[in-house]
Amino acid sequence: MDLFAGLGGFHVALDELEGRGVFAAEREPILKALYKVNFGIDAWGDLNDLSSDEIIACHVPDHHVLTAGFPCQPFSKAGDQLGFKDTNQGNLFFKVHDILRVKRPRFFILENVPNILKHDGGRTKTKIIRMLQKLGYSVDVEHFSPHEFGIPQVRDRAYFVGSIDGLDHFEWPAKHKAPTEIHWVLRHDVPSSRPIPEQTMRAIDMWGDFLRRAPTSLKLPSFPIWSMEFGATYPYEDETPSGVWARRPVWGLRQMGFKGSFGQSLEGTIDEQITRIPSHANRGGDFDFPRWKRTFIRQNREFYQANRSWIDPWLAQWSPQNFYSSFQKMEWNAQGEDRDIDNFVLQMRASGLRVKRPTTSPSLIAFTQTQVPILGANLAGERRYMTPAECAELQCLGEIQLPASDLDAYKALGNAVNARVVKAIAERLLHGLIRPLSSTISDFEPLRATA
After folding, report:
1. DSSP secondary structure letter of residue 333
2. Distance between CA atoms of 175 and 189, rounded to whole angstroms?
3. What are the structural domain ranges in the chain?
4. pLDDT number for residue 229
5. Which residues are catalytic?
6. Which PANTHER family does this chain map to (predicted)?
7. Which residues pair with 354 in a beta bridge?
8. What pLDDT is stored for residue 451 in this prediction?
9. Which residue, 141, 218, 264, 364, has fewest beta-carbon neighbours within 10 Å?
10. 87-104: buried (b, 16+ CB within 10 Å) or exposed (e) per residue?
């Protein structure tokens, strides 16, 4: 039983444990059609159409195991965190609950973002567990990441497991700390079909030059590097630009001696001043910055003042103020490594260019077009995006067919559950349904997927 099925990660995992799928539900038309192609099951569409106990009893077959990666956006740090109040997605957990109540399968495995364990001060987690326990299930919850199973991806997810028969027999799989390498999943027979935009390439070159210019004796910051703060002096602690604009609605920051992004003059109109203050500091009504933002601003200004001798020539050569705001920032997550940017896995995010060691991929999410991980030239022969086939291997999805559109494939893979993690959990949970398999947490063997 595979709810919110997506690409079928739960199906792949339980199929490897000799299970047989009897029902699936997936609302996205492309993924619904692919589920039929990959697994031979004509998936149900919108779960909201299972609108009564009678309809559930009629259309949902009896089954032993219910699996569901119910929508995570309402509980994610990246969203509005409306939780169950999200009428579009947050209340879909209750549909899972309805099916469990009516059909009474012996076991369930539910997956979501780890923030669901802390959401609403822990009350969301408590509510979920209590509701499931009232149905007669013993329930436990833990979080795992694929890199703890020998897969080169850090992607923490929460897993709820339940059993009508109790969980006395159940133990969570052990987490392993063996090193991983991104090259395990790289494929040179399926080249990337989408070129990296010129502006993105220039931004990578710009930050590559920043790394080369930095003295080797200098430990690079662990905080995000915000180049727009280099030369900036606008107020941010006791007062903010928005506070000044509210207090001085005609003059604003004029004739106060402050500088904006990259040391730009603030002697223009308020509209001009707004464009010369970083986007993280120019929102109207933002009268008090949170502590983390004040800390990052202070750290970047201090870093600049201590390193102007080599940063100023870098600013003069590259003019980062002419790049998109997100390209003006960098997160260096490779402390202690050689500073050749083409040695690393790169990702363009709203928070900046993230530079990661080649041991793991960034967490697969429902990528926008610009967020797909980029492999440095020293990893892949040339700078290129990771292909959908490589991302499918990171999700351990075997030989399944993926959406024809790369962007559809990346989105689906970012929403998919990791099949190997599920398999390791399910093997220990489904006591009496399956024979033990010793291969679940064996050494990593790349699983191939078709592009």
Report:
1. E
2. 32
3. 2-178+402-429, 225-306
4. 97
5. 72
6. TRNA (CYTOSINE(38)-C(5))-METHYLTRANSFERASE
7. 331, 347
8. 42
9. 218
10. eebbbbbebbbbbbeebe
Confidence (pLDDT) at 448: 44
Are residues 3 and 68 in contact, defined by beta-carbon separation less than 8 angstroms?
A: yes
Mapped onto helix, strand or coil, the DSSP state of residue 265 is strand
CB-count burial class (<10 Å; 0-12, 13-18, 19+) for 113: buried
3 state SS of 235: coil
What strand order describes the sheet that includes 384-385?
A: 225-226, 329-333, 352-356, 345-349, 374-375, 384-385
Token digits of residue 376 = 């440095």
What would the DSSP string read from start to end of 23-66? -BB--SHHHHHHHHHHHS---B--GGG--SHHHHHHHSPP-SEE
Give the DSSP letter of residue 225.
Answer: E
CB atoms within 10 A of CB 279: 14
Spatial distance between the Cα atoms of 99 and 81, rounded to a whole number of angstroms: 25
Instruction: Please give the angle made by the CA atoms of 281, 286 and 289, to the nearest 5 degrees.
Output: 65
Cα–Cα distance, 93 to 71 (Å, whole number): 8
Contact (CB, 8 A) for 111 and 157: yes
The pLDDT tens digits for 243-276 are 999 999 999 999 999 999 999 999 999 999 999 9
Query: In this structure, are residues 298 and 264 in contact, taking their beta carbons and an 8 Å threshold?
Result: no
Class of 2-178+402-429 in CATH: alpha beta
pLDDT beyond 80 at 404: yes
**369 confidence band (pLDDT: 50, 70, 90):** low
pTM recorded for the entire structure: 0.82
Q: Where are the beta strands (DSSP E) in 205-274?
A: 225-226
Q: What is the pLDDT of residue 118?
A: 86
Alpha-carbon distance 272 to 266, whole Å?
A: 8
Could you tell me if 19 and 425 are in contact, meaning their C-beta atoms sit under 8 angstroms apart? no
**Residues with Cβ within 8 Å of residue 183, at least 6 apart in sequence:** 358, 379
